[in-house]
């Protein structure tokens, strides 16, 4: 969960919140290079070598750097202009606890996760100190953090399958309802059976889900599946979707454009699932892949350096490598090759891969950048000469009309609300003026 990526030369870390890659050389003494999505989030600096770096992350906006070197404390460095650029340290306050990691929840607030609970702090950069806001004692095996929702998930109990979420917002920490992941086999004697590698957190269609990669067992289904647990801000977490993988092996998960993409290493293919493509008919809905399994598009790495011959072709990247690290929602990192990729879904090929045009339109209408692909589908069915074309045309245009109707209704509702506010802005001042006039007039007459 600390985002450590193996590299034979540097200590490389990835921060999922800021989407930054840290390359630390010699404990920072010979340099720390930070690469982010843009130039503003990319920096380079040096820091004193005070031991092996276990975890390193910037707060939002690169204002404060936090570095964990020991199991007892975290060090901080101000990067705010005009503030002292000297380190200060905060030890965890729970006696005999070990710090598993930390997560920034805002530009000056972070939470320590220890094996005995969590400690929520506010960083005071001007005073070079931390103020504890709240703490919670609980046994912790491992943790996951979702930066988009600022929800922290803790694995508790001996088997590790009871998960306790906490939500953070504006200096507050809220304990959410805990829930249990159903394990395929309960070991005897009980031992840690649920790994953080089998769990991922993501937002899909505006709702937060905990995704459990359930491997096959000897007693149950011989194939693996992904189980989705809907985690609301308030209320009970429930199992709502099961994605059938129809195979076994090593898997990794990404979320792209509200689609669950499951990478299968041995076959070097990926499966795509859309939980909205099927109307819910029961409490737990089962889904098959939307499209046939397909491989990620090949990528060639351009050569660089003084020894490069101009005519030398780029080197093909090894897809589905065992050295790949996958992060949510859509990031794949190859530390050995020094590349970070954002995964995307190419929509045009789906036109020929999904034969059911009604299902195809449902799929496309929920995707970003879908307009030109939808136009190509309409053009294809209108120009096609296949038998029974009219029902297909009717189905496609019914779906388009429904979306347009919903858009018009939403626009009318928005216009009505804006009109209401405009009327209120006009009437309310005069109403209050009239009330004051009546009050004065009444008292004068008395």
From TrEMBL:
<dbReference type="GO" id="GO:0035658">
    <property type="term" value="C:Mon1-Ccz1 complex"/>
</dbReference>
<protein>
    <submittedName>
        <fullName>Regulator of MON1-CCZ1</fullName>
    </submittedName>
</protein>
<dbReference type="GO" id="GO:0010506">
    <property type="term" value="P:regulation of autophagy"/>
</dbReference>
<dbReference type="GO" id="GO:0031902">
    <property type="term" value="C:late endosome membrane"/>
</dbReference>
<dbReference type="Pfam" id="PF21029">
    <property type="entry name" value="RMC1_N"/>
</dbReference>
<dbReference type="GO" id="GO:0005765">
    <property type="term" value="C:lysosomal membrane"/>
</dbReference>
<dbReference type="InterPro" id="IPR049040">
    <property type="entry name" value="RMC1_N"/>
</dbReference>
<dbReference type="InterPro" id="IPR040371">
    <property type="entry name" value="RMC1"/>
</dbReference>
<feature type="domain" description="Regulator of MON1-CCZ1 complex N-terminal">
    <location>
        <begin position="12"/>
        <end position="130"/>
    </location>
</feature>
